[in-house]
Design brief:
single chain, alpha+beta, seven-stranded mixed β-sheet, five-stranded mixed β-barrel, 21 strands, globular
Length: 421
């Protein structure tokens, strides 16, 4: 038996102690949850209902982590992973689970997060699945550490459970076929130049209408519902183009429901949501703190002949400055980074008081954390619609729609304003 690491906590289990466990559920991080004499043990690569043998490698204050050693009683939902590196590479968590079951568990995880983190009990709609279960990603970013003299660099993704070790990935089944065709040449070039690198680096491969590019500054084009979006390859844009039409259609319909006539797209980037929704509104405005993104959003509006959409460079403390849309007739789309919206943004949103908010997030946990504040400011959660932009992984895109019910005094004020000449 290997010696335990120096900081290993030997309680309640010894290092590499093996246990037989019944898997009860899955966390939103893709780990199976089991209990041994009441103590929680987390195990990757399992499915609820399975009996497994697992080996302890870390004890925390209130749970332990273990490696999967063998599946004693497999679930009927277990399938053969599509990648030979599954279980070693940390990029995917669910390749061993039938796709319909992946969607069912992701829905359940959102439901449980809503209840536990925000005290919200509501029906989460069935997850809308990706048309492609593999080969869907239009962007990957493999990386490598500076190799030792005489060694070739290991080019790939983080090893499961590690923050520094890299698994060599010559082919990624969830990436598009075009990216996988380009990958061998990119890897060969990096290995030929390995000695010139002072440290490790991250590599970009992004597919657009033009093909696969590796230069973050190269301009690429994505087509969504008949609109063309141009932007530098290194900038953010959704990475599953196959499900994107359904996502933007849903966001547009949710924002345009009720009596909304105006739209604000906060965190607008290069204009994806504001431009695909513009036809449903009298006027739309996109707001960004990135000047570069605003420039591309304006170009995309012009290239697509969209005249009722303007884009504003907003400071963090004045997101809604320069927008004169009446809030009671305005919807706001927010699509923040994974960390969610900060208090400064939310306080400005609540002060503006739009009629509707459509909150798009790639991290349901931070989204639900933010949703807990909306009820205190007069908002009702109408619907939660997950989209599986990331099959085979723990990640999930989630769209929450909120509407504001103004108090009676405010309703009268709006009615009087509408009746005045």
């Amino acid at each position: 038996m290997r010696r335990p690491p120096k900081k290993f906590n030997p309680h309640p289990f010894a290092y590499h102690q093996e246990l037989e466990l019944e898997i009860e559920s899955l966390t939103n991080m893709g780990l199976g949850v089991a209990r041994h004499d009441g103590w929680v043990v987390m195990v990757p690569g399992v499915i609820p209902g399975e009996r497994v043998r697992a080996r302890i490698f870390r004890n925390h204050k209130n749970y332990s982590e273990a490696d999967l050693m063998a599946v004693i009683r497999p679930s009927p939902r277990r399938v053969e992973p599509g990648c030979p590196l599954f279980g070693e590479c940390g990029g995917c968590q669910y390749q061993h689970i039938d796709y319909a079951e992946q969607l069912a568990w992701k829905r359940r995880q959102v439901t449980e997060l809503l209840k536990r983190m925000a005290g919200i009990e509501t029906e989460v709609r069935p997850v809308i699945g990706s048309p492609l279960e593999y080969g869907y990603r239009s962007k990957i970013t493999p990386h490598f550490q500076k190799p030792r003299p005489g060694e070739e660099p290991v080019i790939g993704f983080l090893r499961r459970g590690s923050r520094s070790l890299t698994v060599d990935v010559p082919r990624c089944p969830i990436a598009s076929e075009a990216i996988n065709q380009a990958l061998p040449e990119v890897r060969a070039d990096l290995r030929a130049r390995a000695s010139s690198f002072k440290k490790g680096a991250t590599v970009l491969l992004r597919e657009g209408v033009e093909g696969v590019v590796t230069d973050p500054a190269a301009l690429i084009t994505e087509e969504v519902n008949g609109l063309r979006f141009r932007f530098p390859a290194g900038e953010f844009f959704q990475n599953n183009p196959h499900i994107l039409p359904r996502l933007v259609d849903h966001v547009r319909k949710e924002a345009a429901a009720g009596e909304t006539r105006f739209l604000i797209d906060a965190y607008c980037g290069s204009g994806l949501f504001s431009l695909t929704a513009a036809a449903a509104f009298e006027q739309t405005a996109g707001v960004e703190i990135s000047e570069r993104s605003i420039e591309w959003a304006r170009r995309n509006a012009e290239d697509n002949g969209i005249a009722n959409c303007r884009f504003l460079l907003g400071g963090a403390e004045q997101i809604f400055a320069g927008i004169d849309f009446p809030p009671e007739q305005t919807a706001v789309i927010i699509d923040p980074p994974r960390r969610g919206s900060d208090e400064l943004f939310l306080s400005q949103l609540f002060e503006y008081r739009p009629a509707r908010v459509v909150y798009v997030s790639c991290n349901p946990a931070t989204q639900i954390r933010d949703l807990s504040h909306f009820a205190d400011h007069g908002y009702h959660l109408e619907s939660v619609q997950p989209f599986d932009l990331f099959p085979q992984t723990k990640h999930l895109e989630c769209v929450a729609t909120l509407s504001r019910t103004p108090p009676a005094s405010e309703k009268n004020e709006v009615r009087d304003r509408a009746a005045s000449p």
